[in-house]
Amino acid sequence: MAAGTQARMPAAASADRAPAQRRKRRRWRPSGWHLVLLPLALLLISPLIWMALTSLSTLEETRRFPPGLPHTLQWHNYLSAWRESPFGRWLLNSTIVSVACVVGNVVLCSLAGYAFARIRFAGSRIVFVALLATLMVPFQVVMIPTLIIIKDLHLVDSLPALIAPNLVTPFGVYLLRQFFLSLPAELEEAAIIDGAGRLRVLWQVLLPLMGPPLITLTVLTFLNVWNDFLWPLIVTSSPANMTVQVGLASFQSAHFTNWPILMAGTLMSQIPVLLLFIAGQRFFVSSIASTGFK
């Protein structure tokens, strides 16, 4: 009996490993979709490739027609972009503004989303619908009133002027509210019975379960604030308070543009965004699926 049992155990273990091995081989097996997706991916990434090639070319090579590959890689273009302007200061400003807006959205959108999902108060549905309606209002409509408010607060040409309008977003409130609604209410009820308050329930019970939506909100907010050009262009004027996107615009003039240096600065400004997007992209699908956002 023992010998028969021992003989069956390796057979069962090997049988369990076989489907896993087949799934692993199937996961890496190319399909016909790759013949379509790979050319599309190459087409989408071609502007980034061309930007990198332009940043390593000479000014004469960028004016050549038909265009071609650089004969010698001009790595000094990156040093020129860094030294001929306060590029480090611009990167620091963009980092400070983006990180502050990310923290503000994570904190404030979590509080607002939890309130709309779990706390019933007079007019809660009306307020939430009005909040969603602001998503249909383009920024150009509220740009002048926002600028007037910033001016009255004496924040023009400062980093707080860039941070304040982006501290909370309606999309972030909606995304986190949908996630709160997908969680079972029994989790909160058990914590409340044990004596926990609303904030403690949010901090110790719900936030640990909010990894995917919080990372999604973090990445989207960082991308939006980092790449914003219009609002920083309006509200800042001194080079010390410019973000990297506005600073890059100063590389161009009405009659002359040094394209290799401009492309070198643009590529350096996009490296943090690309790294953050690659690190957080795998959480997008799980976050959207868990919140029911279609």
Summarize the structure.
Helix content is about 70%, strand content about 0%. With about 290 residues, the protein is mostly helical.
Task: For the structure shown, list the relevant keywords.
294 residues; mainly alpha; MetI-like fold; 2 domains; 72% helix
How would you describe this structure to a colleague?
There is one protein chain. Helices cover 72% and strands 0% of the residues. The chain folds into 2 domains: 31-74, no CATH class; 79-291, MetI-like (MetI-like fold, Orthogonal Bundle), CATH 1.10.3720. It is mostly helical. The chain is built from 16 helices and no strands. The protein has helices at 2-27, 34-55, 59-62, 76-83, 87-118, 124-133, 139-152, 159-163, 170-182, 185-193, 198-206, 211-226, 230-235, 244-249, 259-280, 282-291.
Produce the secondary structure layout.
Elements: H1 2-27, H2 34-55, H3 59-62, H4 76-83, H5 87-118, H6 124-133, H7 139-152, H8 159-163, H9 170-182, H10 185-193, H11 198-206, H12 211-226, H13 230-235, H14 244-249, H15 259-280, H16 282-291
